[in-house]
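Repro:
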Amino acid sequence: MKINQSQSLAEQEATQEETEPAVHQPTLKVVYEAPKSQNFPIHKVYKIFQDYFRPRRKRAFMKLFPEVASGAPVVDLGGTAGWWKEDFPESVDISIVNIDDDHREEVTQSGFKFFRTDGRSLPFADKEFHLAFSNSVIEHVGDLGDQKRFAHEAMRCGRKLYLQTPNKWFPVEPHLMTAFIQWLPFKMSRRLLRYFSLWGLVAKPSQKQIDEFLRTTRLLSRSELKQIFPTAQIKEEKFLGMTKSFIVLIQ
């Protein structure tokens, strides 16, 4: 695109906006804890918080569902082998669902079952599993309609449910490690994210990567979770007196 040098900066930006191709909804890509474009040293920052919250979350989970350690069948929607192989015995019966093959080798080598399928349309029978489990995935499956389909499938194939997801109204967006940016309109956040978020400064994502992240990451509020999971109990994970994450339970 050629821009007349006599144009003002504002006119140039307006012209560029008009000629930019429309941004389409990308093919669904379930993201596990962070977009792949975030595979940079920023994960060292994530690890600090994971090392604090994850052991506590695991201990609470094992108290809620001790039968899992004895082999009760579990389907993990969108997870990896990491959660299970570190703290659970080899006797556990874990089926891990992902939309691509990125984690297949690690999952099978760890002794778990792997299914490449879409969490919004699962191939399992009703109540086939003792527990449907999901950790920080539902916020990555698409829009509210997609999230409802994901929730329906989780409740359909599991007799019990454990699901964790970040709180939309916690000030810091957990994937970007930046305050308040998740509350901004799409057009504003896509312009600011590159230079005003920790992810943007460290990973230096392209505009395409930024748009894909924003369009495939939708944090949920308590009221939305209650709408999606009407029969579930919703617990809160606190940090500095604020609700950082929600735990959705059906027992």
